[in-house]
Amino acid sequence: MTGDVRLRDTTPADVEIFHSHRRQPEAARRANIAAPDRQVYLNYWAEHVLGDDTVLVQTVLVDGEVAGNLLAWWRDDRRYLGGWFSQDFWGRGVGGQALRMFLAREPIRPLYADTDIVNTASQRLMERCGFERAGIQETSVEYVLRSAPVSGGRAGR
């Protein structure tokens, strides 16, 4: 059901596909985030994601098709996890498999994440992958992964 899930380094061409994923109405509704303007999105990724060597960003492929992305970045003194998957791949186990693979590449712990308070699918994904609920804000649920770093990762500050 999952298909052949792989991670690879993200290219600028992938960012165009990510933008199309962000424009899927149900995905934007669940994340409670409006779809960004294309050029603003591309510029942000070029400068703040692909242009920042402290960000670990991976494209998720399923049977060779771009399914989404996972990334880790620094905000103040904390390392955060984020990502986005095309709704075409929801409910197939892709997110869990890709996240476990990503966590093997991202060695820094603790690793923080948050989800929209109504996005129960992302909350279950975090918990299945070892994240613990750390708090609830007005619009989000915060998570932390405290386990020891996984060998074989690459990312640094």
Instruction: Give start-end ranges of low-pLDDT stretches.
Output: 149-157
Our estimate of the beta-strand percent is 25-35%
Q: Which value, in Å, is the CA radius of gyration?
A: 15 Å
Distance between the termini: 37 Å
Helical content stands at 25-40%
Strand arrangement across the biggest beta sheet: 1-2-3-4-5-7-6
Task: List the helices and strands in order.
Answer: EHHHEEEHEHEE
- The count of strands amounts to 7
Main beta sheet, described? 7 strands, mixed
Assign an overall shape: globular
Task: Determine the number of helices (DSSP H or I, runs of at least 4 residues).
Answer: 5
Rounded mean pLDDT is 91
Structural class: alpha+beta
Write structural notes for this entry:
- With 157 residues, this protein is α+β, with helices and mostly antiparallel strands.
- The chain is 32% helix and 31% strand.
- It is built from 5 helices and 7 strands; from the N terminus they run E-H-H-H-E-E-E-H-E-H-E-E.
- Helix 4 (94-105) links the parallel strand 4 (78-85) and strand 5 (111-116).
- It is globular.
Secondary-structure topology with pairs:
Elements: E1 5-9, H1 12-22, H2 25-31, H3 38-49, E2 56-62, E3 65-75, E4 78-85, H4 94-105, E5 111-116, H5 120-128, E6 132-136, E7 140-145
Parallel strand pairs: 4-5
Antiparallel strand pairs: 1-2, 2-3, 3-4, 5-7, 6-7
Helix pairs in contact: 1-3
Q: What descriptive keywords fit this protein?
A:
globular, disordered C terminus, seven-stranded mixed beta sheet, single chain, 157 residues, alpha+beta
Short description:
The chain has helices spanning 12-22, 25-31, 38-49, 94-105, 120-128; strands spanning 5-9, 56-62, 65-75, 78-85, 111-116, 132-136, 140-145. It is α+β, with helices and mostly antiparallel strands and 157 residues long. Helix 4 (94-105) links the parallel strand 4 and strand 5 (111-116).
